[in-house]
Amino acid sequence: MSIMFACQSPIAAAVLQLLLAAVMSAQHINVTVDDVSVSLKDSGSLTGEKYTLGKLKRLAITCRASSSGVLSPSSFFWRLENSNSSATVDARITVDTKLADNGLSGTSVLNINYPVKSDITNFVCIVNQTASATGRFLSAPLLTMKVDGANEYDVAMWPGESVAILCLVEGNPMGDIRWTKSVDPAFNLTNNNTLYLSSVSYEADRGYITCASKNRYGENTARLFLRVKSPLSFLTPLVAIGCEIVAILVIVVVYELYNKRRRQVVDGDDPKSE
Ligand SMILES: *[C@@H]1O[C@H](CO)[C@@H](O)[C@H](O)[C@H]1NC(C)=O
Ligand SMILES: *[C@@H]1O[C@H](CO)[C@@H](O)[C@H](O)[C@H]1NC(C)=O
Ligand SMILES: *[C@@H]1O[C@H](CO)[C@@H](O)[C@H](O)[C@H]1NC(C)=O
Ligand SMILES: *[C@@H]1O[C@H](CO)[C@@H](O)[C@H](O)[C@H]1NC(C)=O
Ligand SMILES: CC(=O)N[C@H]1CO[C@H](CO)[C@@H](O)[C@@H]1O
């Protein structure tokens, strides 16, 4: 009966078709998202590690949806994982959605200009609230070493002191943590983000401390130099002060001898004449 009605009235037929399309698109949406891998560039520092994503001017995550019904640009919605608001609230992020001529499929590209560390998260593409897929900004781990909350590349310590070195890892996926000491190849601590060294010594601890992390997108390391002072190093300033005292004494004695000699010449060999 409805088919008959549709055939008799073109307007009614069009309405029916749209309703049907809406129902079908809700049932048959197929979303795929391209994984994008990001390789991080070392900014070139020697000690300590600074990683910048800045060399990548733009990152694109693509969400493809196909449907048995009609899609529109507003069918696509992007958000960050753990957030309900649109990803495009961030001015660096734009979305470019293109639909096929028949409206049955579409591609929505999320563009991130000048990616920053906080972009290392999952972006979620939702199509008409019925299908969603996660576009992952995947990266090799980023590492930062901290001592007492500060980024450190060089830590000076006296023998006997203790230190807790924290290695922060950011990555997607996360990655492991491995610690090494340049002075002790047998040293092995894994999967603990804190390296605690109690009562450090010049022989056993002075050198580079490195933390490394690897995932399937790559490996990065961060290191700091643990400058344990030599137990004898307090002597150095004492020796320097001693040398200065000797030098001053020598100058004073030489000057006195010279003066005495000059007076002897002037006064005619009579030092008691003062
Ligand atoms: C639906 O998604 C699958 C991957 O899950 C893909 O292989 C297939 O080509 C997609 N179908 C269409 C019509 O795009
Ligand atoms: C997102 O919205 C849902 C309900 O719509 C709410 O339960 C949830 O707490 C919200 N999450 C965030 C991170 O705002
Ligand atoms: C370090 O220890 C872990 C387990 O604790 C082990 O899997 C790994 O092979 C060890 N590495 C070295 C170099 O000894
Ligand atoms: C990590 O190392 C710290 C300091 O040595 C230690 O107190 C802690 O128990 C370790 N944690 C794990 C999970 O091994
Ligand atoms: C909930 C939601 O996002 N619905 C959208 C589904 O797609 C139509 C266009 O086809 C949009 O107008 C709706 O806003």
What does this structure look like?
This protein is of the alpha+beta class and 274 residues long. The protein has three domains: 2-138, Immunoglobulin-like (Sandwich), CATH 2.60.40.10; 142-228, Immunoglobulins (Immunoglobulin-like), CATH 2.60.40; 237-273. Helix content is 23%, strand content 42%. It has four helices and 18 strands. It has helices at residues 2-8, 10-28, 202-205, 235-267, and strands at 30-33, 36-38, 41-42, 51-52, 58-66, 76-80, 93-99, 105-113, 122-127, 131-147, 150-151, 154-157, 163-172, 178-181, 184-190, 194-197, 207-215, 218-228. The strands form four sheets. Strands 2, 6, 9, 10, 11, 13 and 16 form a seven-stranded mixed β-sheet that branches. Strand 14 and strand 15 (184-190) form a beta hairpin. Helix 1 (2-8) crosses helix 2. The protein is elongated. The N and C termini lie far apart (142 Å). It binds 2-acetamido-2-deoxy-beta-D-glucopyranose (NAG) (5 copies). Residues 30, 32, 66 line the site of one 2-acetamido-2-deoxy-beta-D-glucopyranose.
